[in-house]
Design goal:
This protein is of the alpha+beta class. The protein has 13 helices and 11 strands. The termini are far apart. The structure holds adenosine-5'-diphosphate, 2-acetamido-2-deoxy-1-O-phosphono-alpha-D-glucopyranose (GN1) and magnesium ion.
Length: 369
C-alpha cells in the first residue's frame, strides 16, 4: 500500500482518536481507496476501532470538495437518524476530525487522509451468503435514498463528473479503443463489439432523465453489497458506507448497481463464466426490498424501468472495466494482470443473461406495481 506502518501511525495520530494505537492493518475489498483498520487501546483492556483511508486522488480530483460532501451528508443523516429515534453513532458514518478540527489530513507527499469511526457489530459482505441479507441491503439502500430526499442537492459537488452518464461512458470507451495505448484492443474484439452492439441502450435512461420522465434524486451511486454494514444481531442493513459518490442521480442507478453485483450467481471477477447468471429469486427479493425501503417514493415509470437500470449499470460497469484494461489499469485496483478483463467478461455475461431473461424480469417488477 506504499506506506510504512510508522507513517500510518503518524497520520492516524493527527486525528482526534481515543486511546493509544495498537495496530493498523489493511482492510476490506474496496477497489478505490486505501483502507486501514486502526485498533486503539483504551483503559481496562477495552479497545476502540477506526477506519483510516487514503482518498484516491486519481479518482477524486478534489479531496476538499469530496470531504465537504461527506461531512454535509453524514451530518444530515445523523440528524435525521436522531429525529427518528435511531443511533447516529452507528447508523451513519461518523467522520473523526483532526485534532485541530479539519476533516482530512494532507501529508507532505500530497496524499489525503480521513478517519471514520468503525461500525461495530456489523459486517460488509463481498458475496450474498443468505438471500435475506440481500433483501435487507435493498431495504437499507432504499431507505438511504428516502432519507436524503430533502437534502439540498445544489450544495453537493460533483465528485466524479458524469459518473453514471452512460452516453459519456461510451464516448470515453470508444476513445480508449481508438487510442489503444497498451495495444490490447486486438485481443478483446469480441468484448468491444459487445458494447458497440448496445450503444443505443446507453441513451435510454439519460434521455428519460433529460426529458423529465424520471426524476433526478440525491442517490448513493455505488450500492454494491460491500458498501453496507449488516448488523450481526438483527441482520438488518445498519449503516450505508462509502459515501464518496453521493450526488444527484437516478434511483435506477442505485437499484441497478446492487443487482449487478448481488444478484450475480458468481463473483465480479470469476474466471469461469458458466458460474455467472442473474439469479431471478435474488432479483425479485431485492426489487421488493428496494421498493419497500423507498417507502412509496418511486414513480410508476421508475418501477417499470428497474430492469433497464439493472442492465445498464451492469453494461456500464463492464465498459468501465474494459476501458481501464485498455488504458493500462490506472483506475480500479487490480490483483492480477488481466483482472479488469475478467471483471469485464463477468459483467457482459450478466448483461447477456439479463437480456435472455428480460420478459421474466419485467413480469417480476410489474408484480410490485
Ligand atoms: P472503497 O471506495 O475503496 O470501496 P470503502 O469506503 O467502501 O472504500 O471502504 C472499503 C471497505 O472498508 C468497505 O467495503 C468496508 O468493508 C470497510 N469499511 C469502510 N468504512 C467502514 C466503517 N466506517 N466501519 C466498518 N467498516 C468500514
Ligand atoms: C468501485 O469503491 P468501490 O469498490 O465500492 C467503483 C464503482 C464500481 C465498483 C465495481 C468510485 O466501487 O463505481 O461499480 O468499484 N467506485 C468508484 O466493483 O468508481
Ligand atoms: Mg466501497
Amino acid at each position: 500500500m506504499g506506506k510504512e506502518k510508522a507513517d500510518l501511525i503518524h497520520i492516524a495520530e493527527r486525528f482526534a482518536i481515543e486511546g493509544e494505537i495498537g495496530s493498523i492493518e489493511a482492510h476490506g475489498n474496496g477497489h478505490i481507496n486505501d483502507t486501514f483498520l486502526v485498533t486503539c487501546r483504551l483503559a481496562e483492556g477495552k479497545t476502540r476501532r477506526y477506519i483510516l483511508q487514503r482518498m484516491n486522488q486519481e479518482v477524486f480530483k478534489n479531496p476538499k470538495e469530496l470531504m465537504e460532501n461527506v461531512t454535509g451528508v453524514t451530518t444530515f443523516l445523523q440528524n435525521k437518524i436522531r429525529e427518528n429515534g435511531g443511533d447516529p453513532e452507528r447508523e451513519a458514518l461518523n467522520v473523526i476530525l483532526l485534532k485541530d478540527g479539519g476533516s482530512y489530513w494532507q501529508e507532505t507527499d500530497n496524499t489525503f487522509w480521513r478517519v471514520y469511526r468503525f461500525v461495530e457489530g456489523a459486517d460488509s459482505l463481498d458475496v450474498v451468503e443468505r438471500p435475506e441479507e440481500f433483501y435487507e441491503s435493498a431495504v437499507a439502500f432504499g431507505q438511504f435514498q428516502k432519507l436524503l430526499a430533502d437534502y439540498p442537492a445544489e450544495s453537493l459537488h460533483e465528485t466524479i463528473p458524469n459518473f453514471h452518464n452512460t452516453i459519456d461512458r461510451v464516448e470515453k470507451f470508444k476513445k480508449a479503443v481508438e487510442a489503444d495505448v497498451m495495444k490490447r484492443a486486438a485481443d478483446v474484439r469480441e468484448e468491444i463489439q459487445f458494447v458497440l452492439d448496445r450503444e443505443a441502450d446507453c441513451h435510454v435512461l439519460c434521455d428519460m432523465l433529460a426529458a423529465g420522465e424520471i426524476p433526478l434524486r440525491v442517490t448513493h451511486n455505488d450500492t454494491k453489497l460491500n458498501n453496507i454494514m449488516l448488523d450481526h444481531e438483527t441482520g438488518k442493513g445498519i449503516c450505508v458506507i462509502d459515501l464518496d459518490t453521493v450526488m444527484p442521480g437516478s434511483a435506477l442507478y442505485d437499484y441497478g448497481d446492487s443487482i449487478r453485483f448481488g444478484a450475480n450467481t458468481g463473483a465480479e471477477d470469476e474466471k469461469d463464466l458458466s458460474k455467472i447468471s442473474c439469479d431471478l429469486e435474488l432479483f425479485s427479493l431485492y426489487t421488493k426490498g428496494f421498493i419497500e425501503g423507498c417507502g412509496g417514493s418511486l414513480t410508476e415509470k421508475e418501477i417499470r424501468m428497474l430492469p433497464m437500470g439493472a442492465k445498464l449499470m451492469t453494461l456500464e460497469c463492464g465498459m468501465r472495466f474494459l476501458t481501464d484494461y485498455l488504458e493500462g489499469d490506472h483506475y480500479f485496483k487490480i490483483h492480477r494482470p488481466e483482472h479488469n478483463l475478467d471483471r469485464t467478461r463477468t459483467q457482459f455475461r450478466m448483461v447477456k443473461d439479463m437480456e435472455d431473461k428480460w420478459e421474466k424480469m419485467q413480469e417480476i417488477v410489474e408484480s410490485f406495481l
